[in-house]
Amino acid sequence: MDYKKYADETLEKVKVKMKEVAKRNAHKVPYITTNGKYDDRDGSQISWWTNGFWGGLMWEMEKLTGDKFYADLACELEDKQDANLMDYDGLDHDNGFKWLLTSVYHYKKDGNAASKNRGLIAATNLAGRYNVAGHFIRAWNDHVRKDDDDRGWAIIDCMMNLPLLYWAYEEIKDPRFLHIARSHADRTIECFIRDDGSVCHIVKFDPFTGERVESYGGQGYAHGSSWTRGQAWAIYGFTLSYMHTGDVKYLNTAKKVANYFIANTPESGLIPCDFRQPESPNYEDTTAAAIAACGMIEIAKHSEGRDKDVYMNAALKMLKAIDEKSADWDPKTDNITTKGTVAYHDGEKETGILYGDYFFIEALMKLSGIDFFQW
Ligand code: GLY
Fold first, then answer.
1. What's 46's domain CATH number?
2. In this structure, is residue 374 part of a structural domain?
3. Beta carbons of 91 and 159 less than 8 angstroms apart
4. Into how many domains does the chain fold?
5. Which positions ≥6 away from 224 have C-beta within 8 Å?
6. Which of 174, 179, 335, 346 is the most buried (most CB within 10 A)?
7. Which atom of ligand 1 lies at the shortest distance from residue 230's CA?
8. What's residue 363's pLDDT?
9. Centre of ligand 1 from the C-alpha of residue 85, in Å
10. pLDDT per position as a tens digit, 296-337
């Protein structure tokens, strides 16, 4: 299979569609589509966890086209995020998603002081969420979960936020950032990864003693099930920890979860919201597929022999399934990926979700060999 040819052809379709999408939504902070139209998280929702993805998507398009229009939109979004930096309650473990794709990438491109400052403030706040007794980074703040005391809650998604700490370490050479990232990753291996290679979404620790108390099904189908986006966060997140540290135990953990993911992938290549969900309702989640594909392509790059093909083929199968069955290439609508699901029980189902498009494009850029990396 000529991966590059496939990716280049598909990226041409991306360019045609995204030109219209970016023009139509230029000054918004989009997250999710309703009937093909993005919402706007500017103003009272400026601290929402996905807001950095619009900047990330604009930087992807700038890389693909060289068009400054996209860079200007990414910078506009980055400026708006300053309201989030000043909103203490709106800062949480998702600082990585928010500032890696905007300020840190911008700073790496042109060395500007304001972007560096934003990235380091976000990283320091993230490091400050580390619980020394339990060796984990606290996920959310009380205002998000009024029904439970979440001071001891950690979630698998946080693996994707650790690169903000690796960057801060690499930038200012202070090993505290590295220690905290590695300690959280190690504790995640101990407390989230099941023997069969699947992962829990939420683990509750006692915030005073640090002991693991219990796990929750979170956005998946049930306690003990396997929410596919959580599996995907683990696959890509542990791969990123390997890429930043060179510690092979993180690569092996990513492979363990990827092997479980591949073994449970249906023949169609379409990924459900949860690998243990019932036959009905049987929700699809294109975001999980796109994120897992990004992780598997990177795993393939760091594997030898037959393993290379196994992970590349699994990634390609999911990307082609999205392209052929769960994508909307009409420039009049805002989303490319169509079947993103926020959560099995509460949240939007089978709709366009901004980060589904972000990771779908990132995966294609990786296959094409384009030098673009925001993590
Ligand atoms: N990080 C939240 C989610 O994946 O929906």
1. 1.50.10.10
2. no
3. no
4. 1
5. 215, 217, 276
6. 335
7. 4
8. 98
9. 20
10. 999 999 999 999 999 999 999 999 999 999 999 999 999 999
Residue pair 201/216 in contact by the 8 Å Cβ criterion: yes
- Find all residues with CB under 8 Å of 270, minimum gap 6, and list them: 284, 289, 321, 325, 326, 339
The answer to whether the beta carbons of residues 106 and 75 sit under 8 Å apart is yes
Kindly report the average pLDDT of the chain as a whole number: 97
Q: Is 373 within the bounds of a domain?
A: no
Determine the atom of ligand 1 nearest the C-alpha atom of 157. 1
- CB-based contact 227:218 (threshold 8 Å): yes
CB 23 within 8 A of CB 73: no
For residue 216, what is the enclosing H or E element?
A: strand 212-216
Q: What pLDDT was estimated at residue 1? A: 74
Instruction: Give 256-298 pLDDT, tens digit per residue.
Output: 999 999 999 999 999 999 999 999 999 999 999 999 999 999 9
Six-digit token pair at 211?
Answer: 């002991």
Cβ neighbourhood burial of 186 (10 Å; 0-12, 13-18, 19+): middle
Residue 221 resides in a domain: yes
Q: What is the pTM of this model?
A: 0.98
Give the mutation target among 233, 291, 344 for probing the ligand 1 site: most ligand atoms within 8 A of CB.
Answer: 233
Point out which residues pair with 272 in neighbouring strands. 284
52-73 as b/e: b if 16+ CB within 10 A: bbbbbbbbbbbbbeeeeebbeb
Could you tell me the two tokens for 375? Answer: 């993590």
Cβ-based neighbour number of residue 140 at 10 Å: 18
Atom of ligand 1 nearest to the CA of 219: 5
- Hey, how many other C-beta atoms are within 10 angstroms of the C-beta on 336? 26
Using the mean position of ligand 1's atoms as its centre, give its distance from the Cα of residue 233 in Å: 9
Residue 1 alpha carbon to ligand 1 centre in Å? 32
Instruction: Give 139 Cα–ligand 1 centroid separation in angstroms.
Output: 11
Domain-embedded: residue 37: yes
Range of the domain at 364: 3-368
Asked if 323 contacts 289 with a C-beta cutoff of 8 angstroms, the reply is no
> Is pLDDT of 143 > 60?
no
Residue 149's pLDDT band (cuts 50, 70, 90) = confident
Which band of pLDDT confidence, cut at 50, 70 and 90, is reported for residue 146? Answer: low
Cβ(157) to ligand 1 under 6 A?
Answer: yes
